[in-house]
Amino acid sequence: MKKPLRWLAALTALLLPIVAMAQQKGLEIDIIGGNASALPITVVPMPYQGSAGAPATDVAAVVRSDLDRSGQFRTLPEAQIVQRPTRGSEVQYPA
Q1: Helices marked H in 1-95 — which ranges?
Q2: Domain tally for the chain?
Q3: Is 27 within a domain?
Q4: CA-wise closest residue to 61 among 78, 74, 48, 73
Q5: CA distance linking residue 83 with residue 91, whole number of Å
Q6: What is the pLDDT of residues 34-86, one digit of tens each?
Q7: Which segments constitute the TolB N-terminal domain (predicted)?
Q8: 29, 35, 58, 74 from 32: Cα distances, Å
Q9: DSSP-based three-state secondary structure for 77
Q10: Within a domain: 4
Q11: Residue 66: what pLDDT?
């Protein structure tokens, strides 16, 4: 009586991983309705004004990445930024 149970247990132990691999599928994400008209914006690098050392994280890069990933905005690469205002009064808006 013990031999058939051992055979059944061994067979189950061998076949279970094969069945699990056959059932496994890759993750598939479908994005429907992306925003083709993302608003173009510029995130100006923020100058550090403090007594301690500058932080290791580039805050402007984090903001730029977050806005890009939202899909609502299309940010201009930092290398293409013409003006670099540090105050709101220095921003020159298009006429």
Answers
A1: 2-23, 59-70
A2: 1
A3: no
A4: 78
A5: 8
A6: 677 888 888 888 878 888 888 888 888 999 999 988 888 989 888 888 888 88
A7: 27-94
A8: 10, 10, 32, 18
A9: coil
A10: no
A11: 92
